């Protein structure tokens, strides 16, 4: 069983930055795909960014967020980060981290999918952290 705990959300003015963290514990996959997803108020959940367990593997950000959002892993590989810069009011959402087998990342990479449109059927999910951006 994998436990994922997000932190780092909060309220920020437009143009500001936040860094979200996701701490993973339990029986994590040896080879995994981890992702950040978000769910704006009244809307469905969408992919934000993906990264896999390889040191030089899949690292993808949704097309509309490239240049502002960056996904990375901690040195111990059990921590996931999402650096969000130049935040906009439309970035307001609940942000979740999730984990699945590595094939999720590989499929997105080799199909050239936009991360925002990938299936959200990951195996493990955190409880989410709220990000609110005011204009």
> What would you report as the Rg, rounded to the nearest angstrom?
14 Å
Unreliable residue runs: none
Q: Summarize the biggest pleated sheet.
A: 7 strands, mixed
How far do the termini sit from each other? 40 Å
Strand content is over 45%
Provide the residue-averaged pLDDT.
94
Q: Number of DSSP strands?
A: 11
Helix content: under 10%
| Overall morphology | globular
Key terms:
135 residues; mainly beta; seven-stranded mixed beta sheet; four-stranded antiparallel beta sheet; 1 helix; 11 strands; 7% helix
Describe how the helices and strands are arranged:
Layout: E1 2-7, E2 10-13, E3 18-26, E4 32-39, E5 46-52, E6 59-61, E7 69-73, E8 79-84, E9 93-101, H1 103-111, E10 124-125, E11 129-134
Parallel strand pairs: 2-11
Antiparallel strand pairs: 1-3, 3-8, 4-5, 4-9, 5-6, 7-8, 9-10, 9-11
């Amino acid at each position: 069983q994998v436990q994922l705990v997000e932190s780092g959300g909060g309220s920020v003015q437009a143009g500001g930055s936040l860094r979200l963290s996701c701490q993973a514990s339990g029986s994590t996959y040896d080879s995994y795909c981890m992702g950040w997803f978000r769910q704006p108020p009244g809307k469905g959940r969408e992919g934000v960014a993906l990264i896999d367990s390889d040191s030089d593997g899949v690292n993808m950000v949704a097309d509309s967020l490239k240049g502002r959002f960056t996904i990375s892993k901690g040195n111990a590989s059990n921590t996931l980060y999402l650096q969000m810069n130049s935040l906009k009011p439309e970035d307001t959402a609940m942000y979740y981290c999730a984990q699945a087998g590595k094939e999720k990342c590989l499929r997105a990479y080799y199909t050239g999918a936009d991360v925002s449109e990938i299936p959200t059927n990951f195996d493990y999910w955190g409880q989410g952290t709220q990000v609110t951006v005011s204009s």
